[in-house]
Amino acid sequence: MDHVAVALVFCWLGMVVAISFIEAPLKFRAPGVTIRLGLGIGRIVFRALNAVETVLAADVLVTVLFGHPTVPALTLTGAAVAVLVLQLGVIRPWLSRRTDRVLAAPDGQDPPRSRAHLAYVAAESVKVLVLLALGVLLSMV
């Protein structure tokens, strides 16, 4: 059962790194991608990512719980799930309000910058470190 948990954790980790740290920043560098277009694409991509993350988080939680977990494994699993819950319950709604304001603003007038993006990146960074530690820990058992 532990090999399933390891696979799930590294799949989750890979998706977060690929989308949050590679796709998201690079899309704004593509020719013709405006802030509005990038935010519209990002909203769709992150909605899909977060849906998949929710399924993976539930699968990891169940797999770890039924796999004779150690206290560190339970702690790291709980931390990863808690960060995701924080992102989905607090930070994503905050980001969505900002995106709504940007998309509704007249052309050329972007609302002031928001700290929500920095909070999301910080949470993603913590989640990446937690998932990496969890994956390594589970693979050593």
Structural class: mainly alpha
Fraction in beta strands: under 5%
Name the average pLDDT. Answer: 93
Oligomerization category of the chains in this entry: single chain
Q: Based on CA inertia axes, which overall geometry fits?
A: elongated
**What is the total tally of β strands?**
0
Which range best describes the helical content: under 10%, 10-25%, 25-40%, 40-55%, 55-70% or over 70%? over 70%
Q: Number of helical runs?
A: 4
Major sheet description:
none
Uncertain segments are: none
Estimate nothing, just give the exact number of structural domains: 1
CA-to-CA gap between the ends? 11 Å
Gyration radius, to the nearest Å? 17 Å
**What is the ordering of alpha helices and beta strands?**
HHHH
Note down, in words, how this protein is organized.
By secondary structure, the protein is mainly alpha-helical. Helix content is about 80%, strand content about 0%. The protein is built from 4 helices and no strands. It is elongated, with a radius of gyration of 17 Å. Keywords: Membrane, Transmembrane, Transmembrane helix.
Observed structural traits:
141 residues; 0% strand; 4 helices; mainly alpha
Furnish the topology, listing elements before pairings.
Blueprint: H1 2-27, H2 35-65, H3 71-104, H4 116-139
Helix pairs in contact: 1-2, 1-4, 2-3, 3-4
Kindly summarize this structure in a few lines.
The chain is mainly alpha-helical and 141 residues long. It comes from Amycolatopsis dongchuanensis.
